[in-house]
């Protein structure tokens, strides 16, 4: 076990027996650190159910193409915890991370605190200590009581599409979840909204009006579509003809347009040339990521494709299925693992029309709250899919190799995606 892992294990043991959605545990700890959340670079706060990470990846690419230095806070990580904290363009170094974690641990003095709370406090400390032009801040879960929501004066907020996820904490309907996501809106901060279902739109609109905010709405105030293979973006400032996003999938044109709208609405120093460069070079691991080399890829014969995606809820599954359906036809083999907080049936529903040749299921290694491989396979078969449980990703890939000329898709969980990248020898950064 590395020193970082040992520190994080100690911090995990401080988790309170009951989770109450509040900021009461971390505010005293931030006070002991001199309130670093009040000493951050200009901050863009991003919430939503899906596309948070992609939107931040585009914004980072646009700003860095403009010569700006950018802090980024994302979660969860895939292989190393360091991935969550990017300081002025580079992942935090391990020595500096360990020192900051231990300082925060000592100040906390063993008091009950969640893992995400204590690590977010650590991130704020590091962001405040390091000079940068901007901070791109992703919520962990929800909005109102999310640990990132201690930033009082962001320059702008973005709410990506809202759908069902984390119902046990945020609510059982899209409208209830939208109430939580709307909590990041701040009086005096501009806001941009992604494509929303009607019930989410109504909630967000009411919340914005109460704060005197007039958001930009995707599909109404700005549009981004694929035209002749390029991204055509339009808002009241005019039309942009841009290269397609480097991230694959039809939904990435929508995600890129949301980020462009945010950059223009928040008056970020990004011109058309930087938009084009950012779209060409943007990266975001485990989001329809092609795996072309590595130990796991070597288990498949030439002619097979291997793709990795960490989408794990119905909205993400629908976007993934759209991406696959837009590709040249090949037999589809799915390798799937999921956490037990999400029903496999909901994730699989968008793939019904794609008629996968086979689904191989596995239990996500090292995750106590993962669905068992046999259970996922049984529930998939009950939905009419040809599914079989396997012992490991290696076993699943060897079985997939027997399907001629297959497109192999590993999906269902970011935790599974991280395990795959580590075993394949692929660095997420």
What is the helix content?
25-40%
Question: How far from one another are the termini?
Answer: 21 Å
Specify the CATH homologous superfamily of the largest domain: Mur-like, catalytic domain
**What Rg do the Cα atoms give?**
21 Å
**Strand portion:** 15-25%
- Helical region count? 15
* Highest-level CATH class of the largest domain: Alpha Beta
- Contiguous runs where pLDDT drops below 50 for at least 5 residues: none
| Class per helix and strand makeup | alpha/beta
Secondary structure layout plus pairing:
Elements (H helix, E strand, L loop, with lengths): L2 H10 L13 H7 L10 E5 L4 H14 L4 E4 L11 E3 L2 E2 L2 H15 L6 H15 L4 E5 L17 E4 L7 H4 L3 H8 L8 E4 L4 H13 L5 E2 L5 E5 L2 E6 L2 E5 L8 H15 L6 H10 L7 E2 L14 E4 L5 H12 L6 E5 L7 H5 L9 E4 L11 H10 L4 E3 L3 H8 L6 E5 L2 H11 L5
Parallel strand pairs: 1-5, 1-6, 2-5, 6-7, 7-8, 13-17, 14-15, 14-17, 15-16
Antiparallel strand pairs: 2-3, 3-4, 9-10, 10-11, 12-13
Describe the structure.
The protein is of the alpha/beta class and 429 residues long. It folds into 2 domains: 279 residues, 3-Layer(aba) Sandwich (UDP-N-acetylmuramoyl-L-alanine:D-glutamate ligase), CATH 3.40.1190; 136 residues, Alpha-Beta Complex (Protein-Tyrosine Phosphatase, Chain A), CATH 3.90.190.20. An 8-stranded mixed sheet has the order 4-3-2-5-1-6-7-8, with helices on both faces. A hairpin with a 2-residue loop joins strand 3 and strand 4. Helix 3 crosses helix 10 and helix 4 packs across helix 5. One of its GO terms (cellular component) is cytoplasm. Pathway: Cofactor biosynthesis; tetrahydrofolate biosynthesis; 7,8-dihydrofolate from 2-amino-4-hydroxy-6-hydroxymethyl-7,8-dihydropteridine diphosphate and 4-aminobenzoate: step 2/2; Cofactor biosynthesis; tetrahydrofolylpolyglutamate biosynthesis. Keywords: ATP-binding, Folate biosynthesis, Ligase, Magnesium, Metal-binding, Nucleotide-binding.
């Amino acid at each position: 076990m590395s020193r970082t892992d040992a520190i994080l294990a100690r911090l995990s043991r401080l988790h309170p027996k009951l989770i109450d959605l509040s900021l009461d545990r971390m505010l005293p700890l931030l006070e002991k650190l001199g309130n670093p959340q009040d000493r951050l670079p200009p901050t863009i706060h991003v919430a939503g159910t899906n596309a948070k990470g992609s939107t931040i990846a585009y914004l980072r690419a646009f700003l860095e193409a403009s010569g700006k230095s950018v802090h980024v806070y994302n979660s969860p990580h895939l292989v190393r915890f360091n991935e969550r904290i990017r300081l002025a363009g580079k992942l935090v170094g391990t020595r500096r991370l360990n020192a900051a974690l231990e300082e925060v641990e000592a100040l906390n003095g063993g008091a009950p605190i969640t893992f995400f709370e204590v690590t977010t406090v650590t991130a704020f400390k590091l962001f405040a200590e390091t000079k940068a032009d901007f901070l791109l801040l992703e919520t962990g879960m929800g909005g109102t009581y999310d640990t990132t929501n201690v930033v009082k004066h962001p320059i702008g907020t973005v709410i990506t599409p809202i759908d069902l996820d984390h119902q046990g904490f945020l609510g059982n309907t899209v409208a209830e979840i939208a109430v939580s996501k709307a909590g990041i809106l701040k009086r005096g901060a501009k806001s941009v909204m992604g494509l929303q279902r009607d019930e989410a739109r109504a909630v967000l609109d009411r919340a914005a009006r109460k704060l005197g905010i007039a958001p930009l709405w995707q599909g109404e105030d700005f549009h981004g579509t694929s035209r002749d293979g390029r991204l055509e973006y339009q808002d009241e400032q005019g039309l942009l003809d841009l290269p397609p996003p480097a991230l694959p999938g039809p939904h990435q044109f929508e995600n890129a347009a949301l980020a462009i709208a945010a950059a223009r609405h928040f008056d970020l120093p990004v011109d058309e040339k930087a938009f084009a460069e950012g779209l060409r070079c943007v990266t975001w691991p485990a989001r329809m990521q092609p795996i072309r080399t590595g130990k796991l890829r070597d288990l498949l014969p030439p002619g097979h494709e291997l793709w990795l995606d960490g989408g794990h809820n119905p909205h993400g599954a629908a976007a993934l299925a759209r991406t696959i359906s837009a590709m040249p036809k090949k037999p589809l083999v799915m390798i799937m693992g999921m956490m037990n907080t999400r029903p496999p049936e909901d994730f699989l529903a968008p793939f019904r029309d794609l008629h996968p040749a086979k689904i191989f299921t596995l239990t996500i290694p090292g995750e106590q709250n993962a669905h068992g491989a046999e259970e996922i396979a049984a529930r998939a078969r009950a939905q009419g899919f040809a599914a079989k449980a396997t012992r490991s990703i290696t076993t699943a890939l060897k079985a997939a190799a027997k399907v001629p000329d297959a497109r192999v898709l590993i999906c269902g969980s970011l935790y599974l995606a991280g395990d795959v990248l580590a075993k394949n020898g692929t660095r997420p950064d």
